[in-house]
């Protein structure tokens, strides 16, 4: 039985940052020179305090590098996509549609009763089709109905109950297309070529509902509660991979962001089987 994600116990991790200055005392003998020929007493001991400017600069540079390294995965994926697409002179612009069923679930920490629920997905595709290469690029704009459902259980009265999450997303994947052979001049579309697509995806959640199904004998009741605006994350991101042949594409999206702001981990996982084509 799956219930709405409850508020989890947050553990705050803090770091105590301390600062220290290294003071160096340098003893030396100096003799002050007077341009008029007068000698002044020797200064036997001079205390010189060195500020650790080099250390401060090094720490600042390391902090900048650490921030940049956090985005290295996304940068690598984008660089691979740009490298694979090649120059615009070797591409032609194409477009297409995709539509079909989607099977989605959520991986919720501490809950092993979630299963896939079937729904709908569809959208448009804009692609750079290679003329003399096996590499191309693509940007999709997809409407996806996602979520999950729990396995059926029994309440105290013996009624069959089931819990569902239903969400609505606009997903935008940025994909590198790899064709298993080069396009021929007589190829009107990509249906005769086996192709692989892979790349990052960003999603925008536009809302969702919690659905509670109760079956009392032959009667069915359904209780629907909309998601509160502050209870879920508007932005989702993950990785997408797909294999296509003829007009059929099987696509899997691995979510890497939490759906809900509170509670444990709650990531989207979606498998879609669509009619898909570019011409």
Word description of this protein:
- The chain is mainly beta.
- It has one domain (about 55-279).
- It contains 2 helices and 11 strands.
- The chain has helices spanning about 55-70, 70-85; strands at about 90-110, 115, 115-130, 135-150, 155, 160-180, 195-215, 220-225, 235-245, 250-255, 265-279.
- It has an 8-stranded antiparallel β-barrel with strand order 1-3-4-6-7-9-10-11.
- Strand 7 (about 195-215) and strand 8 (about 220-225) form a beta hairpin.
- The longest helix has 17 residues, at about 55-70.
- The two termini are about 45 Å apart.
- About 25% of the residues are buried.
- Residues about 1-50 and about 85-90 have low confidence and may be disordered.
SSE diagram, text form:
Elements: H1 53-69, H2 72-85, E1 91-108, E2 114-115, E3 117-130, E4 135-150, E5 153-154, E6 160-179, E7 195-216, E8 219-226, E9 235-245, E10 248-255, E11 266-278
Antiparallel strand pairs: 1-3, 1-11, 2-4, 3-4, 4-6, 5-6, 6-7, 7-8, 7-9, 9-10, 10-11
List keywords for this structure.
279 residues; 11% helix; elongated
On the 0-100 scale, what is the average pLDDT?
75
Written as H for each helix and E for each strand, in order along the chain, the element string is HHEEEEEEEEEEE
Q: How many helices?
A: 2
**Gross morphology:** elongated
C-alpha end-to-end distance: 46 Å
Largest sheet: 8 strands, antiparallel, barrel
Strand order of the largest sheet: 1-3-4-6-7-9-10-11
Q: Estimate nothing, just give the exact number of structural domains.
A: 1
> What portion of residues is helical?
10-25%
Which structural class is indicated by helix and strand composition?
Answer: mainly beta
Which range does the strand content fall in? over 45%
Task: Give Rg in angstroms.
Answer: 31 Å
Low-pLDDT segments, ≥5 res: 1-52, 85-89
Total count of strands: 11
